[in-house]
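anyone seen this seq b4? input:
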Amino acid sequence: MTSAGAGRRQGPAPGRGGMPVLRRAARAEWGPLLRTVRAALAASRLRAIPVTLTAVGLTLVFQFVQNQAWGYRAVQNIGSVQADEHLWLALLRTPLSLFVPALDLPVWGALAQILVVFGIAEICVGRRQLLAVAYLATLAGTMYARIGIWIGPVSPLGLPDSDKYVTDTGPSAAVVGLAVFVCWRYRAWFTCAAVAVAMVIEVVSIKNNLAGKEHVAAVLAVLALCGLQELWPPRKPGDAQRVRGSAHPR
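predicted toks r here
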């Protein structure tokens, strides 16, 4: 090798130092989550998301039935929530209200939200936590409606009295809550913050109504749950055995 050739520095290997900053940031933000989803779908395909597919099917059924003259009242009786109803009746209807699409919005939007966000959550955090967080977020919205009406429109946190007659259904609060929870579990901090900030901007600039404020309530409830799990992380099944094993060393 000549001295001239020996003095030359080789450029970075392709695909290493030359990777754009945004691509590295995206991989750091979403890489673990996407790998988990891709691996589950590659191994089990749609069998990986049975709860999500059930939710999509249930939403389709409710959409069809409530648009029939004979079915509208039946769907309202089992899945429609309004703040002027008795609390116990609203609590009974809240779980099914998640799957009743809003009549003034296209059903395909609700189906897409459920399929994507519920599906990712089912794979990434499991079926039990999917259902628990979805119900918590929906319940937070239901309870906020009553609190907001009690506060009244004099406060930015309140609602006008007319909102007590608004039919409160749909998966949007659960979708927002699940998005925050999954991002927190996979440490996708930027996306988690972006979802939370977007809900606040929605209320301030776009939809300063019951639906928009319920989304904020859902985010706050799920963030509180995340904070509690940070302080007191749930014990894994093998933790008890490890503790017993360390207490009686051989």
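The longest helix spans residues 127-151. The two ends are 62 Å apart (CA to CA). kinda curious what u guys think
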